[in-house]
Amino acid sequence: MKNDNLKKYALITGGTAGIGLELAKCFAKDAYNLVLVARDEARLERVKHELAAAFEIEVYTIAQDLAAPDAANEVYRKVSDQHIFIDVLVNDAGQGEYGLFAKTNLDRLLEIIQLNIVATTSLTHLFLKDMLAHERGKILQLGSIASEVPGPWQAVYHATKAFVLSFSEAVRQEIADSNITITVLEPGATDTDFFNKAGMTESKVMDQKLSDPAKVAEDGYNALMVGKDKVISGVKNKLMIAASNLMSDSSATKRMGKMQEPKK
C-alpha cells in the first residue's frame, strides 16, 4: 500500500464543488492526500492542480458517474490498482429533483436513488471491509436535515437521506467494537449548485439565508475527527429539527411541505 509509510488518503465523492470541495480543503490542510471522484474530468483536473499546489499534497482523480450501474466497483478497482489504502471515505455526492412525486420523471428519480443510496451503500461496503482488515479508518456520510423529516416536493430526496442516516447509524453500531467510526453530516439549505441542478430555484426554501459550505464542511470534519455519530450543521437547523421532533409526524411533514412549496 502506498500509505503504509504513514501517508493518509481521503476519498471524496463529489469533491470538486460545494461541500465536497470544502471538505477536500479541510483534509488537505491536515496533510491528507486526496482521491477525488466526480463526473467532470476537466473540473477534476483543475481542482487537482489547485489543491496539489496550495497544500503540497498528492491528488488522484477518478472521472466516474456514480449514478451508473457498477460505478462503485469501478472506483474501488481503480483505487486498488493504485495500491492506495483509504483512511477516510467521504460519500458526498448526491442529487435531488424538485416537484410533485406523481409529476416527476421516474427515470430521474431512479437515477437519484442509484446515486444517493446504491452508490453510497456500495462504496461504504467496499471500503469498510478494507478498514476493518487494517483496523483503522473513518467514514463521513453526507446526510441532510432532510434525513429527519419527510419532504413534500422532494419526496424521494428526503427518503434517500433518511436511508443514509438509518443505514449509517445501524452499521456504526455493528462495528462499535472496532476502531472505525461512521459520522453523518446533516446540513440544511446550503449555498451550492444543488438547488439549480434540482430545479428548485423557485421554491420558498430559496427565500432563506443559505449556509456557507465552508462552515458546513468544517462542522462535518470536526465531528468526524472526534468520532461523533452525527452532526446537524447550524444553530437554525438544530432548532428546526428539535421543533419537528416535538410535532406529530403528519404535522412535521406538513410544515416541511409549506417550507418547500413553490413561491406564489
UniProtKB/TrEMBL annotation:
Domain Ketoreductase: 8-188
Listed Gene3D superfamilies: NAD(P)-binding Rossmann-like Domain
Pfam families named in the record: adh_short
GO (cellular component) term, any one: membrane
InterPro entries listed in its UniProt record: KR_dom (IPR057326), NAD(P)-bd_dom_sf (IPR036291), SDR_fam (IPR002347)
Keywords, sorted A to Z: Oxidoreductase
Oxidoreductase keyword on record: yes
Family annotation (PANTHER family): DEHYDROGENASE/REDUCTASE SDR FAMILY MEMBER 7B (PTHR44196), SHORT-CHAIN DEHYDROGENASE-RELATED (PTHR44196:SF2)
Family: Belongs to the short-chain dehydrogenases/reductases (SDR) family.
Listed name of the protein: Oxidoreductase
